[in-house]
Amino acid sequence: MSEIAKIELGGKTYELPVVEGTEQEKGIDIGKFRGATGGYITLDSGFKNTGSCQSAITYLDGENGILRYRGYPIEQLADKASFLEVSFLLIYGELPTQAELASFQESITNHTLVHEDMKQFFEAYPAKAHPMGIMASMVCSLSTFYPESLDPNRTPEAKDLTIQRLIAKLPTLAAWSYKNAMRHPLMYPKNDLDYGANFLYMMFGMPTGDYEPDPVVVSALNKLLILHADHEQNCSTSTVRIVGSSHANLYASISAGISALWGPLHGGANQAVIEMLETIHNDGGDLDKWVAKAKDKEDPFRLMGFGHRVYKNFDPRATIIKKACDEVLEKLGVDDPLLDIAKKLEQVALEDEYFKARNLYPNVDFYSGIIYKAIGIPTEMFTVMFAIGRLPGWIAQWKEMIENGEPIGRPRQIYTGANERDYVDVANR
Ligand code: SDX
């Protein structure tokens, strides 16, 4: 017998069904609430207590620092799997067989080129253009080159081709946005390199050189991309789902997700963390001063990379990234003062009552920027790296929403504006 919630309103009792998930999460289904109560809605600014869907893709437990993709702990996937393997798992629901993985990898490899006409778009951007602005535009523009992508419910084969084209082309578009900013020649993908190595080749290779991606860096990048691959209904993923719920095509939906991720409270935090650490370093490294500023309600400064809507203990991804950070910097022989500041800042914050009382721990963005910096990724590209990692998650969530036949997202509101009044001619105002 499933649980029932009861609400007393206006002397009447309303019974609401309780939905329970496979990990015993429970939600009160208010799908019929407005009709049953004669117009009452619920209100939850920022959706801190509201579920938007039921999903089988990612499970996270904020209290216990648990994150699993399709049931597999991210610690195992980050340690043993490739990013394309995890992408297949998220999108199609199961780890690929050897044959499936080989076919998926071949399809991705064969679609890494971008239509030559798109090169003109890059040339029109100023050198200082933020790459997230370029990526959001370029991804949406893919829909103009592949009209068969416009119908999300077209044949499964057409949907798979649209999905695999995007996974294949995003690193190329990202690397080209960097090369364009540097006013360097664009590098074309090399089919004998794997996904991460190919991206590094297109970023740091030169037509005149023989750049070889460092295996240590390729391995760290693979791990970082896996750790960013999905995170249930966060801001950008919910954006992808709601844009896709209007049956806008995949490229338009992902472009909206890229725009949402750009914000410094979300994916833009990894860039903001490095900028914060550099500010503290350049200011002489007085951590007590900056921690005090972060606690001061009158001061807009916040410790970027700290806090999380869901993780109220620790972000399991931050734990893995911090370990990878130490390994990569040691293997590359990089001695970054920002890492020392980050570790001291973490220690100070974790011992401070303000942060402990609010469960503010380092999140996924706190250490990732230090690794990106160590492998030569420019700061403005950090959130692009997040987008490349999060792409398979966004795609999986969009596909699940479409295949579940979910309705167009259209929240209600409580109106607080002026009551009815008559128009007054401008001469009489
Ligand atoms: C990501 O949702 C996801 O899953 C996102 C993500 C993903 O994988 O998709 O995990 C990726 O976006 C990680 C978060 C990256 N953002 C940052 O690092 C920016 C800094 N963090 C904060 O802005 C904040 O912690 C949020 C946005 C992450 C969470 O904000 P909430 O849940 O809305 O919490 P809140 O703003 O209501 O804060 C609660 C209290 C407040 O103080 P009081 O009013 O209770 O006194 O904690 C304080 C806040 O002022 N607080 C901070 C703080 N974060 C929260 N104080 C100082 N520094 C901070 N970083």
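^ s-citryldethia Coenzyme A complex. Strands lie at 4-9, 12-20, 26-28, 58-61, 66-69, 72-73. Residues 7-51 form one domain.
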